[in-house]
Amino acid sequence: MKKTVMRDFAKLLTLKGANVQKNQEVVIFAELDQPEFVKILVEECYRAGASKVSVEWSYQPIEKLHVRHQKEKVLSRVEEWEIEKMKRRVETLPAYIYLLSEDPDGLKGVNQKKMAKCSGIRRGAFKPYRDQMDNKHQWCIAAVPSKAWAKKVFPGERASVAEEKLWNAILMTSRAEGDAIKNWEEHNAELRKRYTYLNSLGISELHYKSSNGTDLRVGMLPESRFMGGSDRLITNGVEYNANIPSEECFTSPDRNRADGVVYASMPLSLQGSLVENFWMRLENGKIVEAHAERNEELLNEVLDTDEGARYLGECALVPYDSPIRNSGILFYNTLFDENAACHLAFGEGFSCCFEGFENLSLEEIHARGINDSIVHVDFMIGTEDLSITAKTFDGKEIEIFKNGNWAF
Fold first, then answer.
1. From residue 97, how far is each of 28, 118, 160, 180 by CA, in Å?
2. Nearest in space to 244 (alpha carbons), one of 189, 188, 192, 197
3. Terminal C-alpha separation, the chain
4. Are 273 and 250 in contact (CB under 8 A)?
5. Are 159 and 229 spatial neighbours (Cβ–Cβ below 8 Å)?
6. CB 322 within 8 A of CB 247
7. Are 267 and 44 in contact (CB under 8 A)?
8. Of the candidates 141, 380, 108, which has an alpha carbon nearest to the alpha carbon of residue 271?
């Protein structure tokens, strides 16, 4: 990919994604796949006025070696310096930029039970510090291609051709072509209109139905509010886009009100492995059954991470007629595939989706029905014939989705 194109994309992530502020620190999380792009992104962060930019690298082959050779006690241990680093970030509130590029099958063959257990312990140790930063710092998740990921998406192409095609697909679906800043301003305005209407309805319940067998009712809290596109910090009002791309209007439901069966419509990339053709049954909010044709054991291990992992944390509405769906590409990456279809997430809910959250503690928000967990896993349920009917608190029924798309 041309450097000028990569620089334009880096500017989008810096200025419209994380919206790096003058004298703010930045932390970039990246795999080893696109060092040239990471260098350009670091440059753009400094041009935006960042005081310090740090890069934390990861590499799946080494992660596999750690899981294979380290004992559970070592693999799950959180060092004192890691806690001190998180404490400092709570104080400094850096902007986070996550660059996804991992191979969807990059951890195939790893001891999934061991990895899930140890990563759960580590996430639990860091969660109190993450909670303190919640809604107080900007973050942005985006993607750049790796050769392995590109070959998974375009298996019939040479690695170099596949990588270029994936670059183009990422830029197109991220609305990064042409005037990217203007594209996102217009897109955010459109999403704002959608969720403002949804919030005006006073939705008590969403009823999902599709021909693949999905028949699920999910309850909402009186304080549940839909959001979409950009968000603002509660501390200083800085606007940022957490996901590039993003096509969703989303909310967090009542953790104790979900009943029925839901079928996934796409594979789920989970901990470096693909979970395929799976479905779940829910009772009183809890996922009481989960089955898959491939990697069912892994799915249930993640669902057993903690008590909240078997409850829903998000309901996201995405039209079937979306840029990602219309691309005809299955990305094998949740950031993209979740924005091609309506999806749910099990695990942690969003405090910002609770009206008046800024005046409440996290404990109060969780006590009122927003789910709490150390995991948050999106899975896609949207189909071409999905219908969603909203039941309002005053007893009305309003069609929200018809044949996979907005009904309004």
1. 5, 24, 26, 18
2. 188
3. 39
4. no
5. no
6. yes
7. no
8. 108
Report d(CA 282, CA 208) in Å as an integer.
13
pTM above threshold 0.70: yes
Q: String of b and e for 139-177 (b: at least 16 CB within 10 Å)?
A: bbbbbbbbbbbbbbbbeeeeeeebbbbbbebbbbbbbbe
Q: What stretches of 271-342 adopt beta strand conformation (E)?
A: 273-283, 286-294, 312-317
d(CA 238, CA 366): 25
Residue 104 preceded by cis peptide, ω within 30: no
- Determine the Cα–Cα distance for residues 134 and 130; give it in Å rounded to an integer: 6
Write the burial class of residue 260 (CB in 10 Å: 0-12 exposed, 13-18 middle, 19+ buried). middle
Question: Count of alpha carbons within 13 Å of 231, Cβ hemisphere only?
Answer: 26
Strand, helix or coil for residue 362: helix
Rounded distance, CA 70 to CA 1, Å? Answer: 38
Mean pLDDT in residue range 214-243? 95
pLDDT digits (tens, 9 = 90+) for 258-307: 999 999 999 988 877 789 999 999 999 999 999 999 999 999 999 998 99
| Helix ranges (DSSP H) in 281-387 | 296-303, 323-326, 334-337, 362-367
- What 8-state DSSP symbol labels residue 213? S
3-state helix, strand, coil in the chain (%, to 5): 40, 25, 35
> Going by C-beta distance under 8 Å and a sequence separation of 6 or more, which residues neighbour residue 262?
208, 214, 216, 279, 280, 282, 344, 381
Closest residue by Cα to residue 143 from 174, 116, 181? 174
- Tell me the C-alpha distance between 320 and 250, whole Å: 15
- Quick one: DSSP state of residue 21? P
Q: Are residues 34 and 266 in contact, defined by beta-carbon separation less than 8 angstroms?
A: no
Residue 294 carries which side chain, given as an amino acid letter? R
As given in the structure block, the two tokens for residue 193 are 């209109």
pLDDT at 92 over 90: yes
C-alpha dihedral sign at 115, 118, 123, 126 = negative
